[in-house]
Each structure stands twice: as C-alpha cells, then as structure tokens.
Amino acid sequence: MRALLDTHTFLWWNMDDPQLSPLARDLIADGSNEIYLSAASAWEISIKYARGRLVLPDAPQVYVAERMASQHFQPLPVLLSHAFHVHRLPEIHQDPFDRLLIVQSQLEELPILTGDPTIARYGVSVIW
C-alpha cells in the first residue's frame, strides 16, 4: 500500500503520541507499505518551528531527514501541477498546507493518513 502522511501524523508517529490512531500506527509500522511525506509538510514543520509553535529535539532539516531515512519514508516533492491544481479546490479547508496535501492525494492517487475530518470532504481517501 502507498499512503501520504499528514503533517500531524508524521509528528505524532515520531513522538509516539497516543492521538495517532491504531490503524494509522499499524500502517506506518508495516515495512511493506510505501509511506510518503510531502515537501509541504517539511515546509509546515519549518514554519511552526521558526515561530516557536513546535518544539523539536533538532533543527527541522535534521529532525525530518533523519526520521525519513530511518523509517524509509519517501519524499513527495511539490510539483507545479500540484501548486496549480490548488485553485480548483472548493473553499472547504482554509489551511494552505492541507489544501496542497489534498491535491497531492488526488493527483498522485495516494490515501492520506490524517485525523482531520475536513480533508475527507474533498472526496480523497482518508485512513485513520
């Protein structure tokens, strides 16, 4: 199975947060699955870290890179096609990072591992 992590899912997985659903935890832990982290999530983590809204044990570029490598997560770049597709989304979700993840889910045909119920309103496959 291939799946895209929402930013909070990546963070909760790495912090062993109990808010992460058992299903999401099992899917991420299963080494036969291809798990993707979007560059948009790295951007979101960097912004929150810089603004003091996210505390990490290392700088974001170290924290994210080390965890992606050790867990064999795949990077998902933000392509121009992703960026240009965002304007086609209805204005249900206001978070620009989540809107980009929704488009990536649609165009790359990846379900999203997320606890955000608003994302499912876009008709993408949500696993939680």
Description:
The chain has about 130 residues and is α/β, with parallel strands linked by helices. It has a single domain (about 1-125), classed as Rossmann fold (3-Layer(aba) Sandwich). It is about 45% helix and about 10% strand. The protein has 6 helices and 5 strands. Strands 3-2-1-4-5 form a 5-stranded parallel β-sheet. The chain is globular. The two termini are about 15 Å apart.
Descriptive key words:
alpha/beta; 12% strand; globular
- Give me the count of strands: 5
CATH superfamily: 5'-nuclease
Biggest sheet layout: 5 strands, parallel
Q: Into which percentage range does the β-strand content fall?
A: 5-15%
Order of helices and strands: EHHEHHEHHEE
- Major beta sheet, strand line-up: 3-2-1-4-5
Specify the CATH class: Alpha Beta
Can you tell me the residue ranges where pLDDT is under 50 for at least 5 consecutive residues? none
Helix- and strand-based class?
Answer: alpha/beta
Q: Measured on Cα atoms, how large is the radius of gyration?
A: 14 Å
Assign a percent range to the helix content: 40-55%
Number of domains: 1
Shape: globular
